């Protein structure tokens, strides 16, 4: 029993950590000044087998919270690039499901002219080798948002919003169902449609290796209230009914959209669509034991544990 309990606690903790996280690059979080490559799941652009760029660093020059921030800057050993491939990339230990997810960061850019870089904040599925969505701050002071439609086309929208140098901005992407909303300082500036087939495996802060630098702080994954305060507005309850071998779910406001059930060792054993505020899930096909279930609405997702017996 102890072994099962320990495995369950580890799995449950891992799911929670991957689902909710804030990185402020502080020493208390295990970060040290200098090259970000290999620090706590971060990697930088490769330059060959086993070699990487070195100027994407944890810096104490500027921060919005604490003393440290991530600084991405031109690598002078290399020329400017056609695409924003230079930078620092964070690999999640457990992929983050798109539906109900939120990604945000504080960003400050130091240069805006013909010699400066375009800076990106993007969501990536590394396995598929594809971007999902991203913000672009271009060298002329414009903010664009881009979404991959999953069919080989990238939709690039001009938000009509401009940015200024040496100014902190909070940028946020919220994915609810197949809709992604883009926010700048809590104001929605664009929307788009994503394909939910691929989880988010990596987040990239990158540039095309021209001039200027960008500071990034308070990089958050599912660690803030959604724009509609869905967590506060919607209450959720559940119970397992042994006589019918069913898991009964109730959502006070929003209809549920999906449920995924995982075994104690992390294998997904059920994935089904939902459509109402009251749902009864038939579990007769599952063996007795402890399970984790992730239930999603259009606005958020919640992870629960239950005993099937």
From TrEMBL:
The keyword Signal is assigned to this record: yes
GO MF annotations, alphabetized: hydrolase activity, hydrolyzing O-glycosyl compounds
Entry keywords, A to Z: Signal
InterPro entries assigned: ConA-like_dom_sf, Secre_tail
Signal peptide start-end: 1-19
Any one Pfam family match given in the protein's UniProt record, by short name: Por_Secre_tail
Gene3D superfamilies: Exo-inulinase, domain 1 (2.60.120.560)
Listed SUPFAM superfamilies: Concanavalin A-like lectins/glucanases (SSF49899)
Domain Secretion system C-terminal sorting residue range list: 247-305
GO terms of biological process kind: carbohydrate metabolic process
Name used for this protein in its record: Secretion system C-terminal sorting domain-containing protein
């Amino acid at each position: 029993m102890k072994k099962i309990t320990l495995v369950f606690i580890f799995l449950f903790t891992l799911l929670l950590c991957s689902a909710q996280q804030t990185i402020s690059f502080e020493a208390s979080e295990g970060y040290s000044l200098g090259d970000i490559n290999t620090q706590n799941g971060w990697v930088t652009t490769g330059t060959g087998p086993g070699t990487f760029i070195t100027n994407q660093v944890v810096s104490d020059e500027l921060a919005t919270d604490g003393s440290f921030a991530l600084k991405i800057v031109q690598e002078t050993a290399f020329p400017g690039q056609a695409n924003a491939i230079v930078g620092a990339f964070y690999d999640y230990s457990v992929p983050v499901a798109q539906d109900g997810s939120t990604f945000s960061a504080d960003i400050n850019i130091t240069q805006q002219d013909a010699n400066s870089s375009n800076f990106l904040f993007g969501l990536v599925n590394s396995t598929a080798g594809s971007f999902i969505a991203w913000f672009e701050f271009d060298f002329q002071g414009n903010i664009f948002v881009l979404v991959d439609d999953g069919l080989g086309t990238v939709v690039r929208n001009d938000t009509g919003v401009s940015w200024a140098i040496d100014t902190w901005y909070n940028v946020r992407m919220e994915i609810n169902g197949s809709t992604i909303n883009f926010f700048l300082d809590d104001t929605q500036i664009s929307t788009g449609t994503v394909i939910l087939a691929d989880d988010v495996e990596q987040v990239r802060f990158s540039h095309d290796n021209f001039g200027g630098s960008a500071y990034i702080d308070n990089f958050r994954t599912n660690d803030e209230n959604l724009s509609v305060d869905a967590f506060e507005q919607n209450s959720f309850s559940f119970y397992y009914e042994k006589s019918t071998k069913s898991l009964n779910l109730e959502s006070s406001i929003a209809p549920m959209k999906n449920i995924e059930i995982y075994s104690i060792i992390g294998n997904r054993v059920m994935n089904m669509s939902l459509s109402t505020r009251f749902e009864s899930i038939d579990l007769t096909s599952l063996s007795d034991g402890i399970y984790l279930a992730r239930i999603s609405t259009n606005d958020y997702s919640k992870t629960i544990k239950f005993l099937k017996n």
